[in-house]
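Moderator note: this is an archived Q&A kept for reference. The question asked for a predicted structure of one protein chain; the sequence and the answer are reproduced below.
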Amino acid sequence: MVAGLTGVALSAFIGVAATDYPRLYAGDDVRAGVIYRDVVPNQSTTVSDLVVCVDRPGKVEVTRIESREAFGGLKLEQFAAMPTREARASGFGEGHKAITELGGDVTKPLVLIGQCPDPDKPADPPTTRHYSLLLQYARPSTQTAGNQGIVIWYTSAGREHSLFVDWEILLCDRSDTTTPDCPASDATATS
């Protein structure tokens, strides 16, 4: 459950571990999420709050993203990425629309190139880059739905790898008065 989480808090992009292949990186100790209240069943909801990058020169190909410990029938319908120069969300027009309705490209595999910027050096735009992940979710019924994070599956150097990100979503039903982060009477809702 997204315990009291109503916004996004992303860690700094530092301390990337050394490996022999380009790795997908989402920050050190990222624990974040978003809550949408008053979500209609089967309504696509796109979020763009999670930022990733590649830890060294090279590329990774994201082949799939899965919800971890999903409940309430949560479906991760689609994903894409948008380049951004900063280690924070892109401000892409998220909301209750599909990625394609918002102008996003959902071609797979999702190829991410460049390198995480070094926080101690000025950015070199042609070689450094962050990406806002665009994640399109829906819930099939009037039951509140969510997850306990995501697993990003990708290939690099000809091998499959995965990255667990403690990034949660909660899609609340308008009548839900029992889920702690979904009270229908909460006037400070994010949607």
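Archived answer notes: Residues 1-17, 185-191 have pLDDT under 50 and may be disordered.
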